[in-house]
Write a structure and sequence with these properties.
By secondary structure, the chain is of the alpha+beta class. The protein has two domains: 26-148, Double Stranded RNA Binding Domain (2-Layer Sandwich); 185-251. It has helices at residues 2-22, 46-56, 70-74, 120-133, 138-166, and strands at 28-31, 60-63, 79-86, 93-100, 106-109, 113-115, 185-191, 194-198, 204-210, 216-219, 224-229, 232-239, 242-251. The strands form two sheets. Strands 7-8-9-10-11-12-13 form a seven-stranded mixed barrel. Strands 1, 2, 3, 4, 5 and 6 form a six-stranded mixed sheet that branches. Helix 2 runs parallel beside helix 4 (120-133). It is elongated.
Length: 252
């Protein structure tokens, strides 16, 4: 009976362990398919080779132009992003690998890898491989970054929930809201005895003449006036025997 109980307990433990292992999410790396310094997609097979190195290290790796698994399509923060940077000189190829999270924050930069090979494809391959070997505890880098991402997402969720609670319906302005009317802007250009007012094209809209009141001008050739009212100006003039009233912001 004791032996049977032990066997049942053993198989139950194995089953739980197996389920636990299956629930562990795969570790994803997305490699940039077009490194900035090369200005061409996967030139000298640099992106493909970088992907190969991460795959060899045990990560599920994709180029950013490849079809991604559903888990990454739903949430890009389930992955880290790999880019290769270049600090090459005239006689040496020098590269390092940069890992960022889904927010673009750098989580790790490798040491520089070097190569003095003249053939570009072989040189980049040697340089990138050397840089990759300098990444210490890659699993730890990934795990700590994912943990930070989860914490940040949780904080963002709390902030969003608070914003929803505090959100005010702006469709109906309250008494305290200061609403600024949208009026055309004119620019004053000084002329003799007044200004010409132009728009942004620029087209002359009015020619105004000074009076003894600095807040009032006559509108030349329109039998009208331009009077300041608060922060804007009101133009009144006749056109085809009809009184026209227009409001402007004017920058003198």
């Amino acid at each position: 009976m004791k032996q049977l109980s032990f066997l049942l307990l053993f198989f139950f433990s194995v089953s739980i362990f197996s389920q636990s292992n299956n629930s562990i999410s795969p570790k994803y790396i997305i490699v940039k398919s077009n490194f900035d310094f090369l200005k061409k997609e996967d030139r000298y097979k640099t992106s493909s080779f970088t992907k190969f190195l991460f795959n060899k290290a045990g990560f599920n790796t994709y180029l950013d132009n490849e079809k991604l698994p559903e888990e990454l399509v739903i949430n890009r923060c389930n992955s880290l992003y790999a880019d290769v940077k270049d600090e090459s000189g005239m006689f040496v190829t020098k590269n390092y690998i940069e890992l960022t999270d889904c927010r673009g924050s750098i989580v790790y930069s490798s040491k520089n890898g070097f190569s003095k090979i003249k053939d570009f494809e072989r040189a980049y391959r040697q340089s990138i491989r050397t840089a990759f070997t300098s990444i210490q505890n890659l699993d730890s880098v990934y795990n700590s970054s994912m943990l930070a991402s989860i914490q940040i997402n949780n904080k963002d969720q709390v902030k969003n929930n608070r914003k929803k609670k505090d959100k005010v319906d702006v469709s109906k302005p309250t008494e305290k809201q200061n609403i600024t009317p949208s009026y055309p802007m004119l620019y004053a250009q000084k002329i003799e005895n007044g200004y010409q007012l132009v728009n942004t094209k620029p087209t002359i809209i009015f020619v105004i003449l000074k009076t003894n009141n600095e807040k009032k001008f006559f509108i030349k050739d329109k039998n009208g006036t331009l009077v300041k009212s608060g922060d804007y100006w009101i133009a009144e003039y006749y056109k085809d025997n009809n009184l026209i009233t227009e409001t402007y912001f004017i920058k003198f």
